[in-house]
């Protein structure tokens, strides 16, 4: 496979996963604003921290308000990391490799982008309609993922697609956890919880569609259990450990090597090291080290894997 084609497929899937997760970022704060209207309104700025877009926002807007942050993350064409621009990037990557994709995938993504673009030109969206709007974005992204899984040959294109999707998913799950942590918690009291804290943490679970699956494994909402479930669970599809495991499998399938036979390039080495670190770090060690610091370290290492993939396959 040409490196140009592989790069486009990889980023097409990273972008679609990012679109879905940004929709989840906003919707979880909207849902919390209904339950904690006075308190959560002060924490919309955390979304800018989670997406690393605060500097861009500050250049464009004089003050942080709920409406401006929602518009900036979702529709703003001046924000290169808005859902509007990310979706456009995904569509452009798909357009350049249409010949390698099933027709249905291109048609769905193109239609998704055009309908979103048309919607973005309409008048201001009613706040009451926002949950349904973001739910539709998530469903469109999940339909795209289902098409990839149901129509693509299990060849290099499929594994580059999975590699991008799961690395992006692991990164964004870590950012969801960070938002939940910083809303009401400090490093010293992560084990204590009041009703407001539990409301935030349950919203974090729901934002990654994890609430029901979590309750099947744990009887009550405890922050240490939520941390363990979303970081270390090997079977939940949006847990960090599961996502890194799936990305590792895809990387090794592309090269034809196996993790048990050692790595064949630096990308494989970096992702296997990270998977083992997650496996062999206990939840109490994460809490003792500091959840925010641990998640920040993870995001740095996840970005290094992306850089190594670029050097090996795309440069």
UniProtKB/TrEMBL annotation:
DUF403 domain segment(s): 1-314
Highest taxon of the lineage: Bacteria
UniProt-listed InterPro entries: ATP-dep_Glu-Cys_Ligase-2, DUF403
Official protein name in the record: Alpha-E domain-containing protein
The species this protein was found in: Lacihabitans soyangensis
Lineage: Bacteria, Pseudomonadati, Bacteroidota, Cytophagia, Cytophagales
